Batch of 2 targets.
Target 1
Amino acid sequence: MTDWISRWESNRIGWHAEQVNRHLVQYYDRFDLSAEGTIFVPLCGKSNDMRFLLEKDLKVIGVEMSNIAIEQFFSENHLDYIVSDVDKFTLYEGARIKLYCGDFFDLKVKHLENVRAIYDRASLIALNEDLRQKYAKHLSDIIEFDARILLLTLFYPQHQKSGPPFAVSKEEVGQLFNGSFDIQELHCIEDIENEPMFQNLGVDFVEKAVYLLQKVRM
Ligand SMILES: C[S@@+](CC[C@H](N)C(=O)[O-])C[C@H]1O[C@@H](n2cnc3c(N)ncnc32)[C@H](O)[C@@H]1O
């Protein structure tokens, strides 16, 4: 936990992308959200994908442990906000966006009012194996039935590089969300040629996958 805080303090945020994620652009329609629908972005950092979602007229709820990330998101996007204390969180609230500063595992159903969709890019794969299990269980517990998750993962030979980002296989996605979710793989390609950091470490391949999960009643 403190490692993430120190990364933000020293600006070691190599995962942060200036461009909107192309898979989000490609598969955004699969959320099946009407305008003004609410989407949850767990472990949101200062992701520019949230700006894309706001531009689609959606409401965004995020959670992020670093106040630096949240304050940079608002300042870099020239958005006004107010700050308040809500339960264990500091809440940063702007027009159609609420970012909870605190621990994802402290979020409760009441913080995710009207959430119908979840966007996970570099969130599940930011966590080690134990935390991934805890994350999938907690996420499942706090979202409503029928909610859809767009989940982006990476898979590579884990022994050739330590995480984060961690390698998460299709089998693991199945195990993590098994029982509570309908799971559909939308996309999976080998893409080492666009991953110079992995190439430099001698990693043999990097598979990028996109899944659409839907919480179902069992
Ligand atoms: C790899 S970054 C990804 C950020 C964002 N999803 C993106 O695509 O840019 C992971 C983020 O999760 C945050 N984080 C890690 N564990 C967390 C937790 N338990 N609760 C809230 N935020 C957390 C870190 O501070 C970091 O900003």
Target 2
Amino acid sequence: MSKIIELKNISKIYNRGSETVHAVKDITFTLNKGDYVSVMGPSGSGKTTLLNIMGCLDKPSNGSIFINDTETSDLQERDLVNIRKENIGFVFQQFFLIPTLTVKQNVQLPVLFAKKKIDDKKARELLELVGLGKRMEHLPSQLSGGEMQRVAIARSLINDPPILLADEPTGNLDTKNANNIMSLFERLNSKGLTVIIVTHNPELVKHCTKVVHIEDGQIKN
Ligand SMILES: Nc1ncnc2c1ncn2[C@@H]1O[C@H](COP(=O)(O)OP(=O)(O)OP(=O)(O)O)[C@@H](O)[C@H]1O
Ligand SMILES: [Mg+2]
């Protein structure tokens, strides 16, 4: 199996006034292409910090990260932007949809930001994939929470990233919608996408190839 993300001795220290917070302590692991990973652990244990570091949204204080064999820990922001654009889709607990844009336009937003040609077909395909083929011209306010999250997932995939990072993607959803989103992630993973999800949902663990348990910034497996 080929490696897709490698973390070597990753630590993150935040300075909060005179206090230092050791959010992640010496974490090392490797994820392979096609992995379906859940990151679990109590509130404040370092899950979001770790995910943001894996997604090159935040830099580690120590250690190195490789995304598809490129070491990213020393790169400048302008190079990180490209690494993110080519490799990583993000999904968050909040959906971050633009209320004045239609569902389809929201999905196309990353293409617009990348100043690339808008490909209508791609957005349509993704919206059909997430079961919203008939809602493309609607506004976010006309959708349920679960539907909004599916729009956010379609948007995260518009640049064809090989990796999807999701931080408590079902945190704002009821059980039915949460299960729906989880089976969507499974389906995407079965098509080859590497999926990494921060979740408190023990149900998900059954379907995962790896579970990363974090406590107090350290892996406890
Ligand atoms: N920007 C920051 N500045 C200072 N401390 C921070 C910052 N971000 C996170 N922390 C601290 O780092 C630790 C880990 O936070 P993190 O957000 O990674 O936890 P988490 O596991 O995602 O928690 P939750 O389940 O509540 O989302 C916490 O003690 C938090 O207060
Ligand atoms: Mg968090």
